[in-house]
Design goal:
With 218 residues, the protein is α/β, with parallel strands linked by helices. The chain has a single domain, classed as Ribonuclease Z/Hydroxyacylglutathione hydrolase-like (Metallo-beta-lactamase, Chain A). Helices cover 24% and strands 28% of the residues. It has helices at 36-48, 63-66, 69-76, 87-96, 171-180, 201-207; strands at 2-9, 14-21, 25-29, 52-57, 80-82, 112-113, 120-122, 125-131, 140-144, 149-153, 156-157, 160-161, 190-193, 199-200. A six-stranded mixed sheet has the order 1-2-3-4-5-6, with helices on one face. Strands 7-8-9-10-13-14 form a six-stranded mixed sheet. A two-stranded antiparallel ribbon has the order 11-12. The protein is globular. The chain starts with a strand and ends in an 11-residue tail after the last helix. 44% of the residues are buried. The mean pLDDT is 96. InterPro entries: MBL_Glyoxalase_II, Metallo-B-lactamas, RibonucZ/Hydroxyglut_hydro. Its cofactor is Zn(2+). This is MBL fold hydrolase.
Length: 218
């Protein structure tokens, strides 16, 4: 069985996810913990649950999703996985962070690459990797079909979609990623986004005002 815990961190209200199964092996996805209190909240939960963190995964490398990367790598001694097309985005964080009044960002280098069609495994769990560019060139989503679960990052939200006005974003790619990748998943699949509450593929397919059945870009 796959378990999920969400933490909402930093001034961007970013969702950080911990996934684990009955083996107690775990992965951390998009650690946005930005201060001592948030880091302690994350590590205390992992300790209380008796989890063994084995991998660090990023859906993409925008500043709010990578603030805790170095801390997680250092604390748990785990490899960090990122799609190679998002390396320029990651490299830009150190330059952009001060504009968001973030002055203590610590860089972390990827150790391995995410690639569509190459699954991520931990414990008894397999996560499929979908490349879903548009909000970021190397953006990915993680899928577990047994649990009907999708970690969508900043591509698809409850009633909304990711921004397309950042450097490296592309509106047409974003819409294509949603309609041709995410909307091929089961209606019942639960979507856990990078910000805000969870939703389902079926709900967004029907009601999303941007790409749903009656949406502006449907």
């Amino acid at each position: 069985m796959l378990y999920l815990q969400v933490f909402t961190f930093n001034g961007f209200q970013e969702n950080t996810y911990v996934l684990w199964d009955d083996t107690k092996e775990a992965v951390i996805i998009d650690p946005g913990c930005s201060d001592r209190q948030e880091r302690e909240e994350l590590t205390e939960f992992i300790s209380d649950e008796g989890l063994k963190v084995v991998k660090l995964l990023n859906t993409h490398a925008h500043v709010d999703h990578v603030l805790g990367n170095a801390f997680v790598k250092r604390t748990y001694g785990v490899p960090y996985y990122l799609h190679p097309l998002d390396v320029p985005v990651l490299k830009s964080v150190a330059v952009r962070a001060p504009s968001y009044r973030i002055f203590d960002y610590e860089e972390a280098e990827p150790d391995a690459w995410l690639e569509e069609g190459v699954p991520v495994t931990f414990g008894d769990t397999t996560l499929e990797v979908l490349h879903v560019p548009g909000h970021a060139p190397g953006h990915v989503a993680f899928i577990n079909r047994e649990s009907n679960l999708c970690i969508s990052g900043d591509v698809l939200f409850h009633g909304s979609i990711g921004r397309w006005d950042f450097p490296g974003c592309n509106f047409d790619d974003l819409i294509s990623s949603i309609k041709n990748k995410l909307f091929t998943l089961d209606d019942e699949m639960e979507v856990f986004p990078g910000h805000g509450p969870a939703t389902t593929i079926g709900r967004e397919r029907l009601e999303n005002p941007y790409v749903g059945q009656n949406g502006q870009y449907a």
